[in-house]
Amino acid sequence: MRTLVLWDIDHTLINAGGISADIYAGVFHRLFGRPPEKVAPMAGRTDRAITTETLRHHGIEPTPDLLASFTTALAEAFQARSHEFPSRGHVLPGVHAALKSLAARTDVIQSALTGNMEQIAAIKLTAFALIGYFDLDVGAYGMDAVERPPLVALAQRRAARKYAGEFTAANTVLIGDTPHDVRAGHEGGARVIAVATGATPAAALRVSGAEVVLPDLADTPKTVEAILGGL
C-alpha cells in the first residue's frame, strides 16, 4: 500500500523571506492604482481566501473575472521575482534530507497541500531546488478551494486516479506548521504531523490536535518515523 504524503510549503519546507506579502501589495497597486491598506493574513490560508479578503477589505467585489485577473498577475509577479527567493529566503533545517529519504521509497508519493496556487507552489519549490521530490499533479492548491480541509480529499482523488489505488485517512499524512493545517488534515481525512517552524509554537500545535509535533525536520530518522510510523 502506498502512502500519500502531503506537504505544506511556507514555513514547513521554506521561509520565503517575506516576498509573498510584497508581491501581493505590488499586484494590488498595479491593478487598482493605489497601495493596499492591508493584505489579508496569509499563514495557513489559501490564495483564494487571501485575495478575496484583501479585495473585500478595500470595497472591491471579488468577481470570478477579477479573481482570475488578480491571480494571473500574482503568478506572473512571482515568476518575475523568483530569482530573489534564494537570497531572501532559505530551506528550513532537515528538509532536503527528509524529502530525499522519503523519495527513495517506492511506497511513498510526495505532493503538496498548500495555500499557494499551483503555479506559485511550483515557482517556490523550483527556486529552492525542491521540486524534483514532488508529484505536483496529485497535489491540491490555493485556488482549488477557499478553505483547506476540502483540499485533502481532492489530493486523494487525484492520487487515486493517477496511481490506481485508494487513499484515505489510513494512508494519507499531512505535514504543516499551523492549526489550519491540523484542521485540514482532521476534517479532510489525514493524519497530521505538525512542525513548530512557523509562527505557531509547539504547545499550541499540540492543543490543536496534531498527532505528532516536531520542533523541526532536522532529525531525519525521527521525521521519517513520525510520518510513516503510525501507518
How would you characterize this protein structure?
By secondary structure, the protein is α/β, with parallel strands linked by helices. The protein folds into two domains: 3-16 and 88-228, Rossmann fold, CATH 3.40.50.1000; 19-85. The chain has ten helices and seven strands. It has helices at 19-32, 47-57, 64-80, 85-88, 95-103, 118-127, 149-163, 179-188, 202-208, 220-228, and strands spanning 3-7, 14-15, 90-91, 108-112, 172-176, 191-195, 212-214. Helix 9 links the parallel strand 6 (191-195) and strand 7. Helix 1 (19-32) crosses helix 3, helix 5 (95-103) packs across helix 10 (220-228) and helix 7 crosses helix 8.
- Please mark out the parts with pLDDT under 50 across 5 or more consecutive residues, or reply none: none
CATH architecture of the largest domain: 3-Layer(aba) Sandwich
Helix fraction bin: 40-55%
Share of residues in strands: 5-15%
Counting structural domains, the number is 2
Distance between the termini: 10 Å
Write the layout of secondary structure elements.
Blueprint: E1 3-7, E2 14-15, H1 19-32, H2 47-57, H3 64-80, H4 85-88, E3 90-91, H5 95-103, E4 108-112, H6 118-127, H7 149-163, E5 172-176, H8 179-188, E6 191-195, H9 202-208, E7 212-214, H10 220-228
Parallel strand pairs: 1-4, 1-5, 5-6, 6-7
Antiparallel strand pairs: 2-3
Helix pairs in contact: 1-3, 5-10, 7-8
Outline of the structure:
This protein is an alpha/beta fold.
